[in-house]
Design goal:
By secondary structure, the chain is an alpha+beta fold. It is built from 15 helices and seven strands. It folds into three domains: 2-85, TATA-Binding Protein, CATH 3.30.310; 86-109 and 235-292, Endonuclease Iii, domain 2; 120-233, Endonuclease III, domain 1 (Orthogonal Bundle), CATH 1.10.340.30. A hairpin with a 5-residue loop joins strand 2 and strand 3 (44-48). The protein is globular and about 50 Å long. The relative contact order is 0.13.
């Protein structure tokens, strides 16, 4: 297991803001990414691409990391961009919190919350698993895909299969990873991407409306999944994903009762502006906390 590895000493994450424990939990376990799990003592173990890392907060709330020594240098180079690839302070300041008291409450409840900058292909895979599923179930599917079909990062932990590797896996073998009907989405998408080299990578360079339109050509990708992929995997902060929590929040806090997801998404992009996706994450975190 990863706990038996030779880990580096705990080291501060360069440029990381001080965080409250609730903010760290929401950042790593709030539905942006699905490869983080809690360990004893407030430690989080996570992986993306071929990186493996542990994160924790010290007594003052400073974020620190530890990585397996053979890959510690690679993790150190990649971690700041993964965690803080956006200028969050500037993005938060650009939000309309001064005239929006509910947004101001959300920002106060989770100071320092930001948007992870994940690999686009992994983000697409994760959100193709998300249809009608809760976070814990998505994590289970993702873990099985890595365990059964991904190459080893370190003893005890595999990376996720690439889309080229997924194209070689049969739909029944995908279903065996508890994917259900989502296996067809992933199988069809893998075949499409195999037939169109570079297609997915081009998404990151396109304007938001065109990128979203192209993503929706893929099997199983609707409005919400496309926006999640663009926000969490392509850094498009103008994307405003709408799920059940956001529908409730926007109805309860902004009077949008009976609005469709598409209408709410449009309202979010207009009201919150170019950083709408960051506002969405604060709204989502606050609403889930109230629900608990």
């Amino acid at each position: 297991m990863p706990s038996a590895l030779n880990w580096s000493d705990w080291t501060p994450v360069p440029g990381a803001p001080h965080l409250a424990p609730a903010t760290l939990v929401e950042l790593l376990d709030g539905g942006q990414a699905f490869r983080w799990r809690p360990e004893a003592g407030g430690v989080w173990l996570g992986a993306w691409s071929d990186h493996l890392v542990r994160l924790s907060l010290d007594e003052a709330g400073a974020l620190r990391y530890s990585a397996p020594k053979p890959i510690a240098a690679r993790v150190a180079a990649a971690l700041p961009r993964y965690l803080f690839g956006h200028d969050t302070l500037a993005a938060v300041d650009a939000l309309p919190w001064r005239s929006d008291p509910h947004l101001a409450r959300c920002l106060e409840a989770f100071p320092g919350l930001t948007i992870l900058r994940q690999p686009l292909g992994e983000t697409l895979l994760g959100f193709l698993c998300s249809a009608t599923k809760q976070i814990v179930q998505i994590k289970q599917m993702i873990a099985l895909l890595a365990e059964r079909h991904g190459a080893s990062i370190m003893p005890g932990l595999n990376r996720l299969p690439t889309w080229a590797e997924l194209a070689e896996i049969s739909e029944p073998d995908l279903r065996a990873c508890l994917l259900g009907f989502r296996a067809r989405y992933i199988h069809d998408t893998a075949q499409f991407l195999a037939a169109h080299p570079g297609w997915l990578e081009e998404i990151e360079t396109l304007p938001y409306p065109e990128a979203k339109e192209r993503l929706r050509l893929l099997s199983g990708v609707g409005e919400k999944v496309a926006d999640c992929v663009l926000l969490f995997g392509a850094g498009r902060l103008e994307a405003f994903p709408v799920d059940t929590w956001i529908l409730k929040a926007m109805a309860r806090r902004y009077g949008l009762e009976g609005w469709t997801p598409a209408q709410v998404s449009h309202f979010g992009r207009v009201h919150f502006g170019a950083q709408a996706g960051l506002a969405q994450q604060y709204l989502f975190a606050y609403e889930r906390a109230q629900g608990r």
